Amino acid sequence: MMTISLIENAKFQAECRNHKVVLDQPVEDGGSDGGMTPVELFIASFGACIGYFACVFLQRRKIPADGLTVDLDWSSADNPHRVDSIEARIKLPAKLLEKEKAGLLRTVKGCTIHNTLHVKPELKILLT
Question: Which of 13, 22, 63, 116 is the right S-S partner for 58, CB 3.0 to 4.6 Å?
Fold first, then answer.
């Protein structure tokens, strides 16, 4: 379970287990820029999921993962307002064989966020 609580204006705190994250909007959108926007955190979650799956792949093959990064770019669209494309670029510290590259890409495409985006979850929004 996660709880999102209003702090002030457009600033919220997400709390899950023993962790807290502040989300906010840029000043020009009514916030105080005290944290990532919800969309930025969504993109960060996708990138971190890819990074985790990449690390697991590399570690199982005893390939060093130190220095691994995932760079992400995204764009938005309207009608409805949404993220309409995301590009993730995995930068590896080690050189991989072509077979290893294919296996790594296959593995990261199995990350939970990637799967959730491909197989639409049931969404419910309730008032309590």
Answer: 63
Tokens 């130190």 -> residue: 66
Q: With respect to CATH, is domain 37-116 assigned 3.30.70.260?
A: no
pTM score, two decimals?
Answer: 0.93
| H helix or E strand, kind and range, residue 6 | strand 2-8
Q: Say how many Å lie between the first and final Cα of the chain, rounded.
A: 16
Helix H or strand E segment including 105: helix 98-108
Helix (H) or strand (E) holding 87: strand 82-91
User: Per residue in 34-80, pLDDT tens?
Assistant: 999 999 999 999 999 999 999 999 999 999 999 999 999 999 999 99
Instruction: List the chain domain ranges.
Output: 1-35, 37-116
